[in-house]
Design brief:
- With about 240 residues, this protein is mainly alpha-helical.
- The chain has one domain (about 1-239).
- The protein is built from ten helices and no strands.
- It has helices spanning about 1-10, 10-30, 40-60, 65-85, 90-120, 130-135, 135-150, 155-170, 175-200, 215-235.
- Helix 2 runs parallel beside helix 4 (about 65-85), helix 5 packs antiparallel against helix 10 (about 215-235) and helix 8 (about 155-170) packs antiparallel against helix 9 (about 175-200).
- The protein starts with a helix and ends in a 6-residue tail after the last helix.
């Protein structure tokens, strides 16, 4: 239901759902998950969570709807958070909290960027949004920041959270390294594909009258990018 809720909701609903409500769910798992959970239950749950990261990534590779692509990406990242919280170790819980904060900022930023393109093109199809670098050159820098943080480029906080989760999962079961590395690779592929498709190429006939970014839109993007930069420079702000 989550991708459908993201796609059908207005932009404010999508941003609040990605940045706040999903994090409340992760917080609830951290607070309510029992510390003495049996291995017979934790094995299939973590297996489904890590497998979900791969399946949502493969779904993103073939999505033509930009908002649906970002929604499935959000589901994949929260699969890592769910698998980390089930292990119930201090290192995994710390990684889950870091990734939740990083994902909340990144996913909300991506949804807002997608809505800006939708307001100008009246479509969510990737093929109809190409060449936006020529119409909105300043927004391309924010697209680059959002795409690179989504794929966990070093030294962003997204990478720190994912590395902590991957390390704890590997310590719990070495087999999980295959799932997590494959999921991270697929995430990098579709994030770069999303950026290249929307920004490169020739403008479509319907997009040639696209107006540039407004001050309020640039301010919204700055309020997303600035916390990501500050947390990357000083991770202790989270604690």
């Amino acid at each position: 239901w989550l991708p459908k809720a993201h796609v059908e909701a207005p932009i404010a609903g999508s941003m609040v759902l990605a940045a706040v409500l999903l994090k409340l769910g992760g917080y609830g798992i951290i607070r309510m998950a029992p510390t003495n959970i049996s291995t017979t239950l934790i094995y299939p749950m973590i297996a489904m969570a890590t497998w979900g990261v791969i399946m949502t990534g493969l779904t993103c590779l073939r999505k033509t709807d930009l908002k649906a692509l970002i929604a499935y990406s959000s589901v994949g990242h929260m699969g890592l958070v769910a698998s980390a919280t089930l292990i119930q170790t201090p290192w995994s819980t710390s990684g889950a909290v870091i990734l939740m904060i990083a994902h909340g900022l990144t996913s909300s930023m991506l949804f807002c960027l997608a809505n800006m393109l939708y307001e100008r093109t009246n479509t969510r199809m990737l093929i109809a949004m190409r060449g936006m670098h020529k119409a909105m050159p300043l927004m391309t820098s924010y697209w680059l920041i959002a795409s690179l943080t989504n794929l966990a480029l070093p030294p962003t906080i997204n990478l720190i959270g994912e590395i902590q989760i991957m390390a704890t999962l590997f310590n719990w079961s070495p087999l999980t390294i295959m799932m997590t590395t494959m999921g991270a690779t697929i995430t990098a592929i579709y994030s770069l594909q999303m950026f290249m498709t929307t920004q490169q190429g020739r403008l479509t006939k319907d997009s040639k009258e696209t107006y540039p970014a407004q001050t309020r839109e640039l301010l919204i993007m700055l309020l997303h990018a600035l916390p990501i930069l500050l947390l990357t420079l000083n991770l202790e702000l989270i604690y």
